[in-house]
Amino acid sequence: MSSASDVIAPDACAVRVVDAAKVAAVSASLPDTETITELAQVFGLLSDPGRLRVITALLEGGEMCVCDIAASCGHSESAVSHALRLLRANRVVRVRRAGRMAYYRLDDSHVRLLLDLALTHVGHGEEDP
Known about the structure:
Oligomer: single chain
Strand content: 5-15%
Strand order of the largest sheet: 1-3-2
Shape: elongated
Order of helices and strands: HHHEHHEEH
Helix content: 55-70%
Number of strands: 3
Radius of gyration: 21 Å
Number of helices: 6
C-alpha cells in the first residue's frame, strides 16, 4: 500500500534529475527581466475583454476614430478612450491627428501578427471534434 508521500503529482518529475546542459542553454536564451516585464504588460493589456474588443476592432477596421471604435464594440466613448490611452502608452496602438479628430490604428505589424495568431489558436480548438 502506498502512502500519500509516495504519490507523485502529475506535473512533477518521477525522478529528480536535472539536465545541466539543457538548463544552461535554455537559461542563456531566456529574455532579460526587463523584456519579460514588458511582455507581461502587453499580455496583461490583451487579457482585458474590453481592450481586446478595441484591439480586434482595429484589427478588422484599420484606422478608426474613437466614435467608430465605440460603436463597433458596443462600449462608451469614455471606456474606449481609456482603453486607447493604456494601449497607446504601451505601444499597442498609435494615433494620427487630423484637425480635431484622432484616428487610431494598431502600432505595427507585430501587434497584428500576435492577434492573428491568437485568433487562430482560439479557433483551432473549435475545429477539433
